[in-house]
Amino acid sequence: MKLSLLSNKAQSARAENPLGRLTVLLNDDLLAVNALILQRMQSDVKMIPELAGHLIAAGGKRIRPLLTLASAALFGYAGTRQHKLAACVEFIHAATLLHDDVVDASDQRRGKASANALFGNEAAVLVGDFLFSRSFQLMIEDGSLDVLRILSNASAVIAEGEVMQLSTANDTATTEEQYKRVIRSKTAELFAAACEVGAVVAGRSAAECQAMRDYGMNLGIAFQISDDVLDYVATGKRLGKSLGDDFKEGKMTLPVIRAIAKATPAEKKFWNRCLSDLDQSDKDFKEAVALLHKHDVLKDSLDEARRYAGQGIRALSVVPDSPLRQSLEELMVFAVERDY
Amino acid sequence: MKLSLLSNKAQSARAENPLGRLTVLLNDDLLAVNALILQRMQSDVKMIPELAGHLIAAGGKRIRPLLTLASAALFGYAGTRQHKLAACVEFIHAATLLHDDVVDASDQRRGKASANALFGNEAAVLVGDFLFSRSFQLMIEDGSLDVLRILSNASAVIAEGEVMQLSTANDTATTEEQYKRVIRSKTAELFAAACEVGAVVAGRSAAECQAMRDYGMNLGIAFQISDDVLDYVATGKRLGKSLGDDFKEGKMTLPVIRAIAKATPAEKKFWNRCLSDLDQSDKDFKEAVALLHKHDVLKDSLDEARRYAGQGIRALSVVPDSPLRQSLEELMVFAVERDY
User: Fold this and answer.
1) What is the mean pLDDT of residues B117-143?
2) Is A55 part of any domain?
3) pTM of the prediction?
4) How many A/B residue pairs have CB atoms within 8 Å?
5) Range with the lowest mean pLDDT among A165-169, A315-319, B105-109, B192-196?
6) A97 with A124: CB under 8 angstroms?
7) What range defines the domain where residue A221 resides?
8) Cα distances (Å, whole numbers) of residue B55 to A73, A321, B48, B199, B245
9) Interface-testing mutation among B41, B42, B43, B45, with chain A (most A C-beta atoms within 10 A)
10) CATH at residue B95
11) What is this model's ipTM?
12) Residue A50 maps to a domain
């Protein structure tokens, strides 16, 4: 894979949304991270770079490593430690995706055949383990016990969140509190840790590290709620996802939990049949979307996401204003307002 | 689970083999480790302690944590750091077992239904991830970057070994060199790391740490070769394993690799049909055992295991003589000479 600086044309194409603008602002850092990712996912056991390359090297928006880079850069950190740690964060994320796809028996990821579909579940589990171990090796090279603590805690919390999600799947009695704990753990915790680590590397105060952590946590929650809403109503082209995936699997997400809370007895029966028993016919998804609109829970859920986004933007107030801080603010809005 | 000191009767029953004698010698340490394991595998996500308890709390010989305890005690270390690190080693081992059973689609482990059979593959993958993360959290509490380096390297090497084993399965062209790399990585590396960590905690010289590492590495290799031989000829009761499991899965182990090297064209066809194509009938296992005897490769393989055992025992010569050192020497012999 060739790693070249982005051409002007590619840069302006990328800059159309806040994530693209962040990528342009942090372009040199991101190239260094991509080079590290490629270098450190190598192994003479050929299946490892093949499978890892399929997932990590080829695609992905690198949102989590970008958060680490942005957080370090926000505080004017001039060293290079954030590159290795951003690669760690991406390795942890990749390991999670590989294991997730085995758990979900997914055959698609980022618009391509998933690693488990191509290489088998066994290889996906084991290469996930390798990337996870490699991520800890990178952290240990960095040598900061504070960073190790943050990222190992995040890893344990993510695993807890995934197990919790497994327990709530197909359970229409799942509460909003349970849902929020799941998304905090499985999604937002790594966003939070990625941001916090950047501030730690920059040697900032406990309050500033906590503020960056809060930004990441709120971004992760807002992003995931929006994602769960989009699963029912996305109008844009979603990368590697189809409308209605969550519904098909019987995932208990915020719009559904709120619709069930307001459901008539007949509607409750409908949700139980579709989400608990997974007894679905072709027209059921349309009916589900109609019910979500009837009870206005899609708008409700996005309002909830907006509240988290507001908290996240307020957390950034400890940081001096800069184009980077503005991009992070815009990213927060984009996480909620995107149509894909 | 009640953790009580062993009664005299239980102690003498346990002391019938070297592993039992090691358990008696290190009884107080092992009780502390068991208590830590129970305490630190907790989570308010109920499925985690349920599943982990099924695997870790209930059974297992604790051979790897015993190696850490023995290694620290050999050098007269008087602190308690080895307890937490022995628990780490067991957590890494347990995570590996959980992922292994998913990979092998096993329905038995340690003579009981395997965790994946009872709780599902998804839960086994995710709880494995949790235990792995928890193990790193424990190491970080200990705070030694040397220990972290040793155990994170071991974790990466184990994952590489498992992927390599996946690539060689059902490939009758697998070489002895490939086989040895697989067993060094997937089995012996954690034995080596477990021993090394004990010496590191005791603050010993690089040469002494390396000697303990060598002991563990050789023990692991000897143990695994013997295990691979026993899969064809065990006469004792094997905990949770049946005769012929490796044959049924088409695993390429030392006796088979050596028998294929000496095979007639007709025999080569037999091995290809049974191990590559997995086209097996009831009488094939008996035929396989007969071929292994015909070419004398079972004895050959055990002789190879004995050579590793000899090297491991010699590695211990840096340590003053003691009942503990004698038990470790006997354990090495037992690893090869057991009938189960």
Assistant:
1) 92
2) yes
3) 0.92
4) 131
5) B105-109
6) no
7) 18-337
8) 45, 53, 11, 28, 20
9) B45
10) 1.10.600.10
11) 0.91
12) yes
